[in-house]
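[SOLVED] Need 3D model of a two-part complex

Original post:
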Amino acid sequence: MFDIDKWQEILATIKKNKMRTFLTGFSVAWGIFMLMILLGSGNGLSNGVSENFTRDAINAMWLWSGKTSIPYQGMKEGREIKLTNSDYDLIKDIEGIDKASGSYYIRGNMFSYGNEYGSYTAVTCHPDLKDVESIDIVEGRFVNEIDIKQARKSVVLGKDIYDALFKGENAIGEYVRINNIPFKVVGICKEGGGTRHRNAYLPVTTGQKVFNGSNRLHNFAVTVNAQSIEESQAIETAVREAVAKKYKFDSKDESALGSYNKLEDVLQTMRIFQAIKIFIWIIGIGTLIAGVVGVSNIMLIVVKERTKEIGIRKAIGASPSSVIGLILLESVLITTIAGYIGLVLGTGLMEGLNFIVEQQYAASAATNGGNGETIFRNPTVDLNVAIMATALLVVAGTIAGYIPAKRAASIKPIEALRDE
Amino acid sequence: MISLSNIHKSYAMGNNSLHVLKGINLQIEQGEFVSIMGSSGSGKSTLLNILGILDNYDEGTYHLNGKLVKNMSEKQAAKLRNELLGFVFQSFNLISFKNAMENVALPLYYQGVSRKKRNKIALEYLDKMGLLQWANHLPNEMSGGQKQRVAIARSMISKPKIIFADEPTGALDSATSFEVMDILREINQDGITLIIVTHEHDIAAMTQKIIRLSDGRISEIIQNGELKNWKSQYRRELEIA
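Solution:
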């Protein structure tokens, strides 16, 4: 099938009909180019936002206690629910709960070191909170099991607190005073996804002991093993029911036990992005159709324009199939090369954009310790999609050329020659 | 070489059909130089197109080189045209984006001759036509006479048995016309059958046999020897008119 002479004939024709070649090629290249930009932007937006989300563990869930708002089993509303350490053990062992941390609120948080002081938040927690809230350790360590067991007066300072109190000097092993009680600094940390690091973390048992909490807990932060909203909701319900059963309140009472499920939020946002992606695809397909129509149109004109040439070729002995082959191979050659050019240009542009975005990301990450602010990342397109789109245009051009070419090649040469 | 018997041809014109050829019987032998004459609408071009297998016919039989030409597929017709026939048209019908050499070489492309070889042969034929220095020019850079000579070279390159010329001098001035006719006569002397359609009497007079068509029928066949008679009769006709 590969016939050098045929290709020479085609190349000679292309070389001598530059305008026609350009128009055919341009509509294909433009279609692919636009498609690449559209899909690339969509992907970039989606990637950027989902990255922002995943900085906190996306499967995190928070629970906090309050007062009942629904009468239950003969008991009036307005009853205060008091969670304790035993609830921590209860929740930790519920199926589907991965990491769990309980917390006891401490009132009045004055931090001081030497002559420096400031008001920050002291959060009491279990070691698992590090995973739930994606806390990054800058120096030292986080709260550990021994801290919990021995109720050691250890504290992990947020980066902002450290900067304010220690001014860049060594803090590990030093003692800071929290509400005038000395705590030994064991680590410095940053909160995942945040830009402010004004929380200090202490062992929950220490908090209870030092600040008169006995066994009280106010809230829980947990992670769940769930892949879908439904699964995540089922685990949330299981936790609520277990606690409600123990304290005898309606498991639907949001006031008695508040809960916030992050996965639900994430998945819902992801659904919006799914919708945006579908929308972009629809526009993309629209662009492709416009490209197909453009190519088809040009092919129709090309064949019309070449009717006389077809007549001449047939008069001097060309068979219909050789004439059709000539026109179609030319079309395939042009559309394939043009599609490739569009592909390269589109990809090039998106890669260039990606480069700029990454630099900005790196710049903002540098000032903010690894957590760059961006809603646009990695705006690239699946190469298979791009190739499929190009193939579609090539095929459309071929079909659009085939029909009139076949007609032109099958009419009597004398009619084609008369066409003037 | 060519044998027509009772050829009919009509064209559909909307609801009416136009009966163009109404029973043509004709014999043309190898090596003849024939002209087909007739007023416009007499069917002369239609007859030439049928002879050249460029068009089909409705009734009758047409034997070309001993082979019946009827209901041929386009592919068969194209092969036959390529092997046996050459064409020269009034409007030259050169491919506008190919230069003279490539135009001349094109029939050999369809015979599967390699590019190098067919271009070499094309140059030989252009040389015969005195157009060697024009080989790399495009058709629109040449005069009518030059274009027609390129077209003649193209029709000859496949060494056909018959060359058909539809008003070959129709678009040319008289001096160029005579040049072209001289070339055609030389070709005929090499043994190729030549059939031309013309409405010019002086052009027709240069051929050996004149077939006059009127209203779709052959009205008169004038042989070589009678040409002198015919010429004087034609002059008388002119004088009367």
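Edit: The radius of gyration of chain A is 34 Å.
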